[in-house]
Every structure is written in structure tokens, then in C-alpha cells.
Amino acid sequence: MYKLLSHNDLDGVGCGILAKLAFGQDVKVRYNSVSSLNREIEYFLENDSPDTFLLITDLSPNEENEKRLTSYYKEHGNVQLIDHHKTALHLNDYEWGYVVVEEESGKLTSATSLFYQYLVYHQHLEESAAISEFVELVRQYDTWEWEKNENHKAHSLNSLFFLVSIDEFELKMIERLRTSDHFDFDDFEKKLLNMEEDKIERYIRRKKREIVQALVGKFYAGVVYAESYHSEVGNELAKEHPHLDYIAILNMGGKRISFRTNRDDVDVSEIAGRYGGGGHQKASGSSMTEEAYKHFVLNTFHLDPLHEDAKRNRYNLKESEFGSLYINRREDIFLLTLKDEQWLVERNGEVLDLTFSTYSECESFLKRNYEAWLARDDVFVEYLMSKVKAAKGS
Ligand SMILES: [Mn+2]
């Protein structure tokens, strides 16, 4: 007998699907949130037969259960943990732990891709084109590589995962992976998925109008409330606001926070760690602890949302040789200009005593300190006319 404790997201359920393909009736699978895993481990250690082989994927136990699992392993063997989270790397110190974040080729791993290798290596499962394609879609979604590769099928797979129940998803996928030569969606699913993508787009557009900016510790965070589509919301907001260090997505009902960044110089697994959570460098999560509540809810609730940059301008453009005009809620007027290959900021007519070697650094400074946005063309034209008037008058 086998027992698999896995995460309740697509990557975790991908492991469950592979386990059922490999072991059929001989495996019991339980999907967990990050917080419920430890209860399940304790239940297993107290109640299950030592003949049952325990597999844990895509999640890591707390310190106490690390100890319990280690002594259990010494006595019975029969434990294997497989994970790809950076915050779980220390579990490689145990014989029962196997954590790989990145393959030697530089390819990022997922729990499903590691577990697939494990099952094939131990001859529990035979490789097939359909399964390999499914595993790769899960991996690309979980590592967010799909976006760079424009592999929308990977994104669709995750959307489908959320459209149906976990049980239904499992059943559908197991059947398909057993019988198809290649992995694909059926026509009805394709129709559903198109509708879902439109819905996600509208949801993200709304969230773009709700995000607020807050300095938390030494980092500038974008804070937004969202119950669904955390990865998509986080990713789009991070792209929209590169001056922010990370995006904190608050799920008040679930009392959880997701952290996302697309920057290489920020590690959100450390941010989540501060509130007792963990994860990857670019994506992590934690519970809404009292401290987190204070930092992200209480201290930010009164703030006005960030304003988006004007998008349809023809004249007031970024990095323009005529200067780029920004405004903010306090009605400050900023002009970004290039002089002697350095970018300067003029605030309400006065040049600040700072220079920047790139436009993006200059803009980032402006947005972090003044919450300014690129003004619309009509504001720009009005500004230029007032300049001309002033010049004529003098
Ligand atoms: Mn994962």
C-alpha cells in the first residue's frame, strides 16, 4: 500500500494523478493546504500501518514532523519526500528527503516532473507521450515558464483545474492519460477555457484599479485584495509596476497572503518567511498573521489606489527627448529629462539634486517616492502651452 500526501494545487494534484496511474487501487491520495499537511503526517504516523509507504510531494513538514519522520524512517524506512521549493532544500539532509529546484540543464523543476522521474526510475510507471506532455504542461505552469514560452496550453490546464472539482479533474486526466496518444483538451473544454480566459482578463483589469503602494520594512509592496487567480493577478501587477519590489495579494476569507515578484533582486520566499510562510524566490505565501495583518491591511486600508500610466499617448511618451511628464494625486508636476546622458527630475519647476543613468531607474525613483504616473496627452499639451505663454510673457 502507498499513501501520498500532496499539495492541493495543480502541481500537487499532478503528483496524485501520476500516483494513481502508477499504483491504481494501491494508493490513497490526500491533498493538503500548506497548513494541513502536518496534521496528516501526524495522523499517518499514529494510525497507518508501517507497511504503507508514505510519499509526500510539493509540500514540506514542520520541524517537529521532520524529527518524527526521521525516527519513523530509521525504524521502518518507507518514507519519501519529493519537493522543488527552495525553502525545503534543507530536507536533503535526510535520507527520506529529495529536493531539487533546478535540473543540471538549468530547467526549473516541479513536484510533478520530479515525481514522474521517480516513478519511471523505480519502474512503477511507464513513460508515454501523453503523460510526458501533461507533466511538462504542469511544470511550465508551476514555474511560470509558460509565459516566456507563450505556452497557453499550460495556463489553460490550470484554468481547467479550477473550473472543475479536484475529483473530476483527476478522473478526466487519468482516463485521458491512459487512453490518448497525445494530451489535448476536448472541444467542450476548449469553449469553456476561452470563456474563462476572458473572465480572468476582466478580473485583472479590475485589480489594476485597486492596487495600493506601501513601504513595508525596506521594500515597496503593491497590495491588492483578491480571492481568485492569485498567480495571474500577481504576475500582471508586477509587470505593470516594475518599480514595486513585490506584490502582496490578500485573501481575507482564506486568511492568507500570496507574494509575487518578477524581479531577480527580490526573494519573496524570505518575505513570506517573515510571516511564517515560504515558497519560491518569485512566488510564495503565508498565513495572515497578526503582524502581516498590521503591515498589509491595517496600515494600507486608507490609501488611494495607484494610478496607471497613460497608455494611448502619442506625444507624452517615456524616454522622450522633449521630456516626459508625470503627475500625482498631490498635483505635483514632474518632468523627466535627459542632460549629459543623465536623467534628471524636475519637480514643480525645480530640478532635484539627483541623477540617474537609466530612464527606468529615474522613473522608479519617481514612482516609489511620489506615486506619480505618466500624464495623458491633454495634460502634456496644457503644460506645454503654459510654458509657451510664460516664455512670451517674460
Ligand atoms: Mn509545486
UniProtKB/TrEMBL annotation:
<dbReference type="InterPro" id="IPR058608">
    <property type="entry name" value="NrnB_C"/>
</dbReference>
<dbReference type="InterPro" id="IPR052968">
    <property type="entry name" value="Nucleotide_metab_enz"/>
</dbReference>
<protein>
    <submittedName>
        <fullName>Oligoribonuclease</fullName>
    </submittedName>
</protein>
<dbReference type="InterPro" id="IPR038763">
    <property type="entry name" value="DHH_sf"/>
</dbReference>
<dbReference type="Pfam" id="PF26386">
    <property type="entry name" value="NrnB_C"/>
</dbReference>
<feature type="domain" description="Oligoribonuclease NrnB C-terminal">
    <location>
        <begin position="323"/>
        <end position="392"/>
    </location>
</feature>
